[in-house]
Write a structure and sequence with these properties.
Number of domains: 1
Structural class: alpha/beta
Distance between the termini: 33 Å
Largest sheet: 5 strands, parallel
Shape: globular
CATH superfamily: P-loop containing nucleotide triphosphate hydrolases
CATH class: Alpha Beta
Number of strands: 5
Strand content: 15-25%
Radius of gyration: 13 Å
Number of helices: 3
Helix content: 25-40%
Length: about 110
């Protein structure tokens, strides 16, 4: 399975959704600003190696990371700024590969 990245807006929501998906026996890892650098690196390595298939994260993962073959970016929470949206969806469809981006809007 190609990796999926789920973006949310808060650390609390990262932990909640990661726990929820984990309880469903999905291979999930998380990344947010409240984690130490070693924890962040382990999460990224898990996604890159395939031991995790889903990364739940905040905007901390929207820039400067390169995960090959990301199949789908899901904006569970729409970002507050348009530039954050651009960076988030830029995690998929890289290097000529196809990818999907889905954004949920709650009015």
């Amino acid at each position: 399975m190609r990796p999926v990245i789920v973006f949310v807006n808060t650390k609390v929501d990262v932990d909640f959704i990661c726990d929820f998906l984990g309880n469903l026996k999905m291979k999930v890892t998380s990344l947010h600003g409240g984690k130490g650098q070693d924890q962040r690196e382990r999460s990224l390595l898990a996604l890159k190696s395939g031991s995790s298939e889903i990364l739940v994260c905040t905007n901390v993962a929207s820039r400067g990371i390169d995960i090959a073959n990301v199949a789908h970016v899901i904006n569970y929470h729409a970002p507050k700024e348009f530039i954050d949206y651009v960076h988030r969806i830029g995690r998929t469809g890289r290097a000529g590969k196809r990818g999907i981006a889905t954004t949920f809007i709650d009015l």
